[in-house]
Automatic annotation (TrEMBL):
Protein name from the UniProt record: Nucleoside diphosphate kinase
Coiled-coil residues: none
Molecular functions (GO terms): ATP binding; nucleoside diphosphate kinase activity
Reactions catalysed, as given in the entry: a 2'-deoxyribonucleoside 5'-diphosphate + ATP = a 2'-deoxyribonucleoside 5'-triphosphate + ADP; a ribonucleoside 5'-diphosphate + ATP = a ribonucleoside 5'-triphosphate + ADP
Length: 148
């Protein structure tokens, strides 16, 4: 089954949105297979966002990600990469649809509460980076109520 990496950014943790965000993924029917609260250093944040290293906002982005603890998660389910991004909403919260996490809880692009992998390939890289110890393999007893 498809995996994705989801991170609640420092602003989401500070603002008390952890439960709300996890609830949205749970209620959709996705399965949580990894979860930890972690503060990362600059080298780690730079590795996570390496593809954006040439962008003018890169150092501000790294400052943001290292500014406090984040909640790192692995969620699993059919279509979870794309659907996870839809639940999160557009990068710029002023353009995110109402009902999405960023649309409901954020205003500035540099304080947009949550990260989600943008492809199955990125998800694999990000899960390997954030969960080198591996994830928890289990199947929800609700599986047959969610999948036909
Ligand atoms: P992530 O899920 O965090 O990867 O966001 P994304 O995939 O929607 O956007 P992208 O990967 O292009 O950018 C990563 C993060 O950099 C965004 O979530 C923003 O926090 C930040 N960012 C992107 N574009 C801008 C920008 O133009 N200005 C600023 N200040 N930050 C930006
Ligand atoms: Mg991205």
């Amino acid at each position: 089954m498809e995996h994705t990496f989801i991170m609640i950014k420092p602003d989401g943790v500070q603002r008390g949105l952890v439960g709300e965000i996890i609830g949205r993924f749970e209620k959709k029917g996705f399965t949580l297979k990894g979860l930890k609260l972690i503060t990362v250093d600059r080298a780690f944040a730079e590795k996570h966002y390496a593809d954006l290293s040439a962008k003018p906002f890169f150092s501000g982005l790294v400052d943001y990600i290292v500014s406090g603890p984040v909640v790192a998660m692995v969620w699993v389910g059919k279509g979870v990469v794309t659907t996870g991004r839809n639940i999160i909403g557009a990068t710029n919260p002023l353009e995110s649809a109402a009902g999405t996490i960023r649309g409901d809880y954020a205003i500035d692009i540099g304080r947009n509460v949550i990260h989600g992998s943008d492809s199955v390939e990125s998800a694999k890289k990000e899960i390997a980076l954030w969960f080198p110890e591996g994830v928890v393999e289990w199947q929800s007893s609700l599986h047959s109520w969610i999948y036909e």
